[in-house]
């Protein structure tokens, strides 16, 4: 098996705040194998965005990388110079953003923006245009020639997101990071984009790191799943393992709350009681303890670590019942 | 879906819907044409003195009458427009260019640089312009270049502040972040993404700034701080006329009308441009 495209080990990131350091990520491990789609699930504020900002090294100025390594194709991204890092972005690692309404420049035509993305390429204007046309066709945009002349506000949300995907895939990156690319779209479009993304992944053979809080989308698209909670990875494994046999109580609850899985119509949808722990003053022990129905005395004293083979979870329940 | 429209087409279709803006545009065009072709249109040499025919009222020979030295006022007004135009063109383009660079530096640069530049802008703006002009003229003597220099120095902060605010707002926008994530350098982001986004407000500001600059030139010339006689300027025509107001109102009327026309024209035109390019209003017609 080829070495993984992306290998994050023990990554911890703090944000300096007025109340003290906010521990946004703690000891995060993440492996993205070549040609696979990895999904990251977790509620808002669990550190998904911090994680991707750390990978492309566009962290907020008050963020501080405490420890850990981010290896991309054998290079430690955290030790690259800003200039070296910039040459990787949009070339070997590229990204699709959440809201296609705001991620395109409103005053430039689609064609101009698509040529701009090819700024590393020294080919002529017409060659760049031809390549833009081809990419638009591949992402399934009808009448691409006309679209190149248009401005983003002439296009619908789904079309814009396709344009954004086309731009991200322009340089045939080894890793595509998709930050909730379908959250801002309606449900039918979501399915279309997901299918297109899956097809494109097969064609280009790139790896995709797919961030979402929508379990249905993850189930549809991903090969492997990483579940994050409050800045930690609580469970990871193949899609089948995590979805059919969730080990961590948080994953179990998360799956229970997925409206698509609720068989009986109810007035009130299930929720996970409680809220995220304060990341400035971290409680000792397990971070999910206060919301967990299986909490034991051990949970408040000792922090569980990830255990298991390919399917890992960080919970004391697993250790006590081997 | 609407057909993509060009910038000029977009501007004109917007102007058509706005009669006041169209009036402004026509006024501006007429003034520009008259001024540019002044040497061919002026019936007399603006410096030609004819003492026998001083302070005459409008006649077939002198449409706007003559001044205290018997010079043809129409010719002086037309040539005075050239001074006004030259001052506004040079002063506005230079202060816009410098303001653009400083504003983008302040908007996207490190925090300390932003602080220093903002303090600098505020310091310059805190002087009353006329006092500042008087001080400079006292040092260098009155000339057209001094007027241009004073206007440039006092206008730079106006442009720089607008650019800084716009750049700051853009900096937080997703597409700038997206560009960074796609490997664009700061220079590329400024050139290809920030600049096109702030160009429209900047040009609107410039068009609304023309009357202010023309007025300032006229004011300084009126005070004798601008162009030196006998060069005609709208301000100096007013000043000459002012002394002989009891004898003839025509110099004042002739010098005042172009000032009023250019102010109204550029203001209407600028406001109309602002409405056309304001994204909130723009969305309505689609």
Tell me about this structure.
The complex is a heterodimer of chains A (322) and B (286). Helix content of chain A is 33%, strand content 22%. Chain A has 322 residues and is an alpha/beta fold. Chain A is globular, with a radius of gyration of 21 Å. Chain B is mainly α and 286 residues long. Chain B has one domain (22-31, 66-284): MetI-like (MetI-like fold). Chain B has helices at 7-16, 19-36, 38-41, 73-108, 111-126, 129-140, 144-171, 174-181, 186-222, 234-243, 250-277, 279-284. In chain B, helix 4 packs antiparallel against helix 5 (111-126), helix 5 runs antiparallel to helix 7 and helix 9 packs parallel to helix 10 (234-243). Residues 281-286 of chain B have low confidence and may be disordered. The A-B interface holds A 56, 58, 86-91, 94-95, 97, 99, 102-109, 116-117, 119-120, 149-151, 153-154, 164, 167-168 and B 1-2, 4, 173-175, 177-185, 188, 192-193, 196-197, 200, 279, 283, 286.
Task: Chart the SSEs and their pairings.
The complex is a heterodimer of chains A (322) and B (286).
Chain A: E1 6-17, E2 20-32, E3 37-41, H1 48-55, E4 63-72, E5 75-76, H2 82-88, E6 93-96, H3 110-117, H4 125-138, H5 144-149, H6 157-169, E7 175-179, H7 187-204, E8 207-212, H8 215-221, E9 224-229, E10 232-238, H9 239-244, H10 249-257, H11 297-301, E11 312-313, H12 316-320
Parallel strand pairs in A: 3-8, 3-9, 6-7, 7-8
Antiparallel strand pairs in A: 1-2, 1-4, 4-5, 9-10, 10-11
Helix pairs in contact in A: 3-6, 4-6, 6-7
Chain B: H1 7-16, H2 19-36, H3 38-41, H4 73-108, H5 111-126, H6 129-140, H7 144-171, H8 174-181, H9 186-222, H10 234-243, H11 250-277, H12 279-284
Helix pairs in contact in B: 1-11, 2-4, 2-11, 4-5, 4-7, 4-9, 4-11, 5-7, 6-7, 7-9, 9-10, 9-11, 10-11
List keywords for this structure.
heterodimer, A: 322 residues, alpha/beta, Rossmann fold, 2 domains, 7-stranded mixed beta sheet, 4-stranded antiparallel beta sheet, 11 strands, 22% strand, B: 286 residues, mainly alpha, MetI-like fold, 12 helices, 0% strand, disordered C terminus
């Amino acid at each position: 098996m080829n070495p993984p495209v992306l290998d994050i080990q023990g990554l911890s990131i703090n944000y300096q705040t007025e109340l003290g350091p906010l521990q946004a990520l703690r000891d995060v491990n993440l492996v993205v194998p070549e040609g696979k789609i990895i999904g990251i699930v977790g509620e808002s504020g669990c550190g998904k965005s911090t994680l991707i900002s750390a990978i492309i090294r566009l962290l907020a100025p008050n963020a501080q990388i405490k420890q850990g390594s981010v290896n991309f194709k054998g290079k430690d991204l955290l030790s690259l110079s800003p200039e070296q890092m910039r040459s990787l972005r949009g070339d070997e690692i590229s990204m699709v953003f959440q809201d296609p309404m705001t991620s395109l420049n409103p005053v430039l035509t689609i064609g101009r923006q698509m040529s701009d993305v090819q700024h590393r390429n020294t080919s002529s204007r017409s060659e760049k245009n031809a390549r833009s046309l081809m990419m638009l066709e591949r992402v399934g945009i009808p009448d691409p020639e006309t679209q190149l002349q248009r401005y983003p506000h002439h296009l619908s949300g789904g079309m814009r997101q396709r344009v954004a995907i086309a731009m991200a895939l322009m340089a045939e990156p080894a890793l595509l990071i998709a930050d909730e690319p379908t959250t801002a779209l309606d449900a039918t479009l979501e399915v279309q984009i997901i299918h297109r993304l899956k097809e494109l992944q097969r064609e280009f053979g790139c790896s995709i790191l797919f961030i979402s809080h929508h379990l249905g989308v993850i189930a549809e698209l991903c090969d492997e799943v990483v579940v994050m909670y409050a800045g930690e990875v609580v469970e990871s494994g193949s899609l089948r393992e995590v979805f059919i046999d969730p080990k961590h109580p948080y994953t179990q609850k998360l799956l229970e709350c997925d409206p698509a899985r609720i068989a009986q119509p109810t007035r009130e949808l299930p929720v996970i009681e409680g809220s995220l722990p304060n990341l400035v003053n971290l409680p000792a022990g397990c971070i999910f303890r206060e919301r967990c129905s299986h909490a034991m005395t051990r949970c408040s004293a000792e922090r569980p670590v990830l255990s298991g083979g390919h399917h890992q979870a960080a919970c004391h329940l697993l250790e006590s019942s081997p | 879906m609407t057909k993509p429209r060009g910038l000029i087409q977009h501007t004109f279709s917007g102007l058509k819907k706005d009669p006041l803006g169209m009036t402004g545009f026509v006024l501006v065009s007429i003034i520009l044409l008259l001024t540019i072709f002044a040497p061919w249109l002026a019936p007399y040499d603006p410096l030609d003195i004819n003492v026998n025919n001083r302070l005459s009222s409008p006649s077939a020979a002198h449409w706007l009458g003559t001044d205290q030295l018997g010079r043809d006022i129409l010719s002086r007004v037309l040539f005075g427009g050239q001074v006004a135009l030259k001052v506004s063109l040079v002063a506005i383009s230079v202060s816009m260019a410098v303001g653009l660079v400083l504003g983008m530096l302040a908007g996207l640069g490190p925090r300390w640089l932003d602080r220093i530049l903002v303090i600098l802008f505020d310091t310059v703006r805190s002087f009353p312009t006329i006092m500042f002009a008087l001080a400079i003229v006292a040092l260098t003597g009155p000339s057209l270049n001094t007027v241009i220099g004073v206007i440039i120095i006092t206008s730079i902060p106006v442009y720089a502040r607008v650019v800084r605010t716009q750049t700051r707002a853009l900096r937080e926008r997703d597409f700038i972040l997206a560009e960074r994530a796609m490997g664009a350098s700061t220079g590329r982001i400024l050139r290809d993404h920030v600049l096109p986004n702030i160009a429209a407000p900047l040009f609107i500001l410039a068009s609304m700034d023309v009357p202010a600059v023309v007025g300032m030139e006229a004011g300084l010339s009126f005070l004798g701080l601008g162009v030196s006689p006998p060069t005609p300027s709208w301000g100096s025509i007013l000043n000459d006329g002012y002394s002989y107001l009891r004898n003839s109102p025509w110099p004042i009327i002739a010098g005042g009308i172009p000032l009023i026309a250019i102010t109204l024209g550029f203001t209407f035109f600028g406001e109309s441009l602002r409405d056309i390019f304001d994204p909130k209003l723009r969305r309505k017609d689609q």
